[in-house]
Amino acid sequence: MQSKIFIDTNVFLRFLIVDEKTPQSSIKAKEIFSLLQNRKVLLQTNTLIVAEIVYVLESYYELPKLDIKELLLPILSLPNLIIKDKPIVLAALSLFVEKNIDFEDAYTYFDMLNEEISKIVTFDEKHFSRLENISVISAVE
Q1: What's the pLDDT tens digit per position in 87-98?
Q2: What Cα–Cα distance (Å) separates residue 69 from each residue in 52, 57, 73?
Q3: Model's pTM, two decimal places?
């Protein structure tokens, strides 16, 4: 059985975005992802890393949500990339675009449904009020 190697945010980002200051990092990241795509390595990451990638691509690189989804979906769907809650992460990535909400809110929504939780208390009702099958309780009230 192949041993797993954890992959950090910066490797994903250097694979997706070439940094002119450190072009060698992008070359190395592409080599790592080539091994992943060819099933020569088993990589693992977590939801926090995915959330950080989405945040950096959206806030620092100012990529539109649809571009972020189109960049990440093929990579995160690779069978040799393990994410413990991959179905929720992939669903959240789609909802992030479809409902124009934060990735973290989309992930929380699917996690709630998975845990059979139908109510959320929040100060930020805007995004959650766009979602079906949950009730939003204002923390202000």
Answers
A1: 999 999 999 999
A2: 14, 10, 6
A3: 0.91
